Amino acid sequence: MPVKPGPDWRSRLQAWRARQVARPEFRRFVQRLPFSRSYSKAQEADLFSLVTGFVQSQILFATVETGLLQALEPGPVAVADLVRPTGLSEDRLRRLLQAAQAIRLVIVGRDDFVTLADQGAVVQSDRGIRAMIRHHALMYRDLSDPVTLFKGANPETELHRLWAYAGSGRETSVDPGAAATYSTLMSHSQSMLSDEILDAYDFGRHRHLLDVGGGEGAFISAVAARHPSLAVSLFDLPPVAERARQRFAEGPLTRCPRCHGGSFLDDPLPRGNDCVTLVRVLFDHEDSVVLRLLRNVRAAMEPGQVLVVAEPMAGADSRGQRLSTAYFGVYVLAMGSGRCRTPSEIVSLARAAGFSSFEIRPCRSALMATLVIARP
């Protein structure tokens, strides 16, 4: 019988460290050391935040759903004057304000006027963040029994029903209402992501960009605004492409982008684009589907052209990467399709699809995206 390899020295060292940290007397000893006291307190606060994270997210949801943050947008408002817009009694309102102030969403002044704190101001100013906060009500229902979710014992999750067509890449049985829900949410949550991608990669060097899985065109609109001379187009399922056409017909762009409808797995993609983008597309799909998609993209490209993959990617190099890995990994698990991949895993799939030159480029925020730039 072959001997199974044992853990390496790093794993053994971490196991030893975990045993020490688990001992109450060790933790008390560390807390008494001057040079580690602040670190110990920070670790304690992080653990408490982890344990109580759901409560904090529900406080945030309540401030959005009751209209509290919206009511504070114009400026300071007396507590009594927030009763009507929020629909809460003054006693319940003060409890919500106390909780919201504790997690730095609002500030209740000594004058009994309430203003937005920095975090609250960001949430209220960004409709994409608010859309995701409201959308999380579905995800939290799927997470009410996380063990069942990880066992895969209930495939009919709320997110799976919502994104029923997203994992297939096919036109089959695509409900226009589902397409509208999907596209609107993706569009609203795209603005910060687009800025991150545009700052990390200069699309102005290209002549024509095709965004595959481009939704209602939020990303190509941002690209066109940054680079007016760049021709842009998108490819998505027919109901989604039709929504994009309607949006562009009513929008501010002087040149209406071409919106191609079809399946990015089964239909040939438009040719003649020296740049193709996949923005938050791959992590919706399993490896076999990603490989088919990348092969279809490669078939539409010539040497010298560029594929830019942009999405949150797994990793442990920074706090942003760790948060992104945990969140998006569980999100696609509940959705029932896809996974959060490391950049090297995406490179491996792209290489198998026929790409041969790669560059991994971080964005400012790893929470938003990392770029994998591939060339045939």
Report on the architecture of this protein.
This protein has 376 residues and is of the alpha/beta class. The chain folds into two domains: 37-125, Winged helix-like DNA-binding domain superfamily/Winged helix DNA-binding domain (Arc Repressor Mutant, subunit A, Orthogonal Bundle); 131-375, Rossmann fold (3-Layer(aba) Sandwich). Helices cover 51% and strands 12% of the residues. The protein contains 18 helices and ten strands. The strands form two sheets. The chain has a seven-stranded mixed beta sheet, sandwiched between helices. A three-stranded antiparallel beta sheet has the order 1-3-2. Helix 14 (218-226) links the parallel strand 4 and strand 5 (231-236). Helix 9 (127-142) crosses helix 12 (176-188). It is globular. GO terms for molecular function: O-methyltransferase activity; protein dimerization activity. Pfam families: Dimerisation, Methyltransf_2. Residues 171-356 form the O-methyltransferase C-terminal domain. Keywords: Methyltransferase, S-adenosyl-L-methionine, Transferase. Residues 49-106 form the O-methyltransferase dimerisation domain.
The CATH topology of the largest domain is what?
Rossmann fold
Number of helices: 18
In angstroms, what separates the terminal alpha carbons?
45 Å
What is the ordering of alpha helices and beta strands? HHHHHEHHEEHHHHHHEHEHEEHEHHEE
Q: Which word captures the global form?
A: globular
Low-pLDDT regions: 167-172
Number of domain modules? 2
Q: Average pLDDT, to the nearest integer?
A: 89
Profile the largest sheet: 7 strands, mixed
Question: Could you estimate the helical fraction of the residues in percent?
Answer: 40-55%
| Radius of gyration over all CA atoms, rounded | 24 Å
Secondary structure: number of strands: 10
